[in-house]
Hints:
This protein is of the alpha+beta class. It contains three helices and ten strands; from the N terminus they run E-E-E-E-E-E-E-H-E-E-E-H-H.
Amino acid sequence: MARLSSEVVFQGRVFRVDRDRVKLPHGPEAVLDVVRHAPSAILVPMPDPDHVVLIRQYRYPIDRDVWELPAGTLDPGETPEEAAARECHEEIGLVPSKIRRLGSMFPTPGYCDEEMFFFKLTDLRQPDTAAALDPDESIHPRVFTLEEAWAMVRRGEVVDMKSVVGLLLVQPGFSDPS
Length: 178
């Protein structure tokens, strides 16, 4: 595919929207709107093999509080692993000694280029210094058993796909046992 032209039609704090005129791989030209979003790190913080830390926070677009896995956008020049460690400190107040990449996925590749990197964080410890939340965040972390977390998915208390995917990636038997 070749991009023939591009214009920014919206620039926000979190993402921008480009309108691209492209020549598609099979020949025709098309005009496509694409949401450009920085990569993100999705955390599965596990104090032990049977427990996970979820956070509760208000999400304005759906006008409700939800339980979800901690996550955050990569800062410029930051690796996904660095973002995972930083977000763990900021959002749940703990620092991981072990960070293992579980994989990456594109949640909405039909119109958005965001890549989500999933991490299992273990050997969680208290940090030497406290971290500050972003001004627009009010986050409340809590430890759940994996069984409780899946019950929350079934009850509609965990409603975002990144959290469901992250929980699935640490299910016994789904991926390697380490």
